[in-house]
Design goal:
Length: about 200
Amino acid sequence: MRMTLRTLLLTGVVTVTAVLNGQTQSLHTSSHEVDLALTYDALHNTVNGGGSFWQQGGGLELTAEFYHGLGIAASVGGVHAGNIQGSGVDLTTVTTVFGPRYTWTTPSGRIALFGQGLIGEAHGLDGVFPSSAGALSNYNTFALQTGGGVDWRLSRHYAARLIQAEWLRTEFPNAGTNVQNNLRIGAGIVFRLQR
């Protein structure tokens, strides 16, 4: 049986939901953690043939830790750039990814360092994607996002995401290699739903 991106994403959502359901049921008897992060994101893109541009936007990331720092993360992010390099072409990119995450917390509990590897789908909107059928304005493709970040605990229920830096690989058609290796940088606030 061939697994499509949508099937893979659905499997990820079901897995995260099952983990979170287990977390909710043990709300008062567990030290496991569920976090919701809201971030400002910037994505650095390299243009085929030279040059680069930035897209800006935001993201929402839900994570559940279930065993000694090991957990799962699901992330949705959207970024936009208008009039790329004076071409009159805009681009909006929405990524939906999920996967494993490891978090190490300092003994004081004030600083948490995390690393993760997420896979899923990227959706390009309002752009120009060359194809054999002509230029397309929308396109869906595979996405791989890997990296990490640093959270600083402000209180029992809030933390600041000081930095999150990740490599994002997409495969949008670009009349070249059809591969994009992008740098995603973000920062924001984390709501700690359970501790």
